[in-house]
């Protein structure tokens, strides 16, 4: 049996970023910003579809982005090691890569929840999902299947993202006042500082104690503040490598806030499952933005 082709995926916020092997599959991907009533709870709604020859499956290495995602599969559901695919699932925030095996007609609509508002749509604290992939009907009951049916009734691509938006607008009625702006602001500060802020400094910036900050993150983010800082620093490092791939590792470590090169190596192993050199050697196959995918 031939070895699966592998690609990496990182949700970078406005645009997804893929690393492709030359013979890897490709598809159409994009996203929409939700309507204003949803923006306290939902960051973006992504859509994508592609065909992957079942004779040559694809393994996607999904790098951690610190987010919680609701995934609705309208084709052949991808699978994780030791677990079958779900038609609808919730992916908790995590600090390690997830390997997903894909084959056949793969089509998904993914809802990326916003820190501060995710507990309202999840129905439980985000921390209870940390590091887990859970069938969404365990949280939503029969509603999960109804949502999938409503989305599947729309045309593929952007119309299905808009259908998801309409469903979420109906679910969100009266929940906006249950969002926590402190959590969203905390994550914005971490992103703006590229993870280079101490927990006590973050708590002071928000006017809360460190214990209270931890409680906010457990309920509304799903990871501890320090873990979110690690991911932000990693993403900033990936961004630097995208634009300056020939930079010396000692310079990269210094500029991105690692203690030393050994610290950088350990973080790449933990967050990407790869040594930094292996990560960079894979290169970037394409950068797919939302406007191009929707065209």
TrEMBL record:
GO MF terms held by the record: DNA-binding transcription factor activity; sequence-specific DNA binding
Domain of life of the source: Bacteria
InterPro entries (UniProt xref): AraC_XylS_family_regulators, DUF6597, Homeodomain-like_sf, HTH_AraC
Sequence ranges assigned to domain HTH araC/xylS-type in this UniProt record: 184-282
Keyword terms of this UniProt record: DNA-binding, Transcription, Transcription regulation
A Pfam match: HTH_18
Protein name as catalogued: AraC-like DNA-binding protein
Organism for this UniProt entry: Longimicrobium terrae
Lineage: Bacteria, Pseudomonadati, Gemmatimonadota, Longimicrobiia, Longimicrobiales
């Amino acid at each position: 049996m031939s070895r699966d082709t592998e690609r990496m995926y990182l949700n970078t916020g406005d645009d997804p970023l893929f690393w492709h092997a030359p013979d890897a599959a490709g598809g159409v991907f994009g996203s929409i910003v939700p309507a204003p009533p949803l923006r306290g709870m939902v960051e973006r709604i992504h859509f994508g579809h592609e065909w992957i020859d079942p004779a040559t499956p694809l393994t996607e290495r999904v790098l951690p982005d610190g987010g919680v995602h609701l995934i609705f599969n309208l084709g052949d559901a991808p699978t994780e090691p030791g677990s079958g695919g779900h038609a609808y699932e919730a992916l908790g925030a995590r600090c390690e890569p997830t390997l997903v095996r894909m084959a056949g007609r793969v089509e998904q609509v993914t809802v990326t929840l916003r820190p501060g508002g995710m507990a309202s749509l999840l129905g439980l604290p985000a921390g209870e999902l940390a590091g887990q992939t859970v069938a969404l009907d365990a949280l939503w009951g029969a509603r999960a299947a109804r949502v999938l049916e409503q989305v599947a009734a729309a045309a593929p691509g952007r119309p299905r993202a808009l259908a998801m938006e309409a469903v979420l607008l109906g679910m969100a009625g009266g929940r906006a006042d249950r969002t926590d702006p402190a959590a969203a602001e905390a994550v914005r500060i971490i992103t703006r500082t590229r993870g280079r802020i101490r927990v006590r400094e973050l708590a002071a910036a928000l006017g809360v104690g460190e214990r209270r900050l931890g409680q906010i993150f457990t309920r509304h983010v799903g990871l501890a503040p320090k873990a979110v800082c690690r991911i932000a620093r990693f993403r900033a490092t990936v961004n630097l490598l995208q634009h300056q791939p020939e930079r010396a590792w000692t310079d990269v470590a210094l500029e991105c806030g690692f203690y030393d090169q050994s610290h950088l190596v350990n973080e790449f192993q933990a967050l990407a499952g790869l040594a930094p050199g292996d990560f960079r050697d894979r290169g970037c196959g394409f950068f797919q933005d939302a406007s191009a995918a929707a065209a």
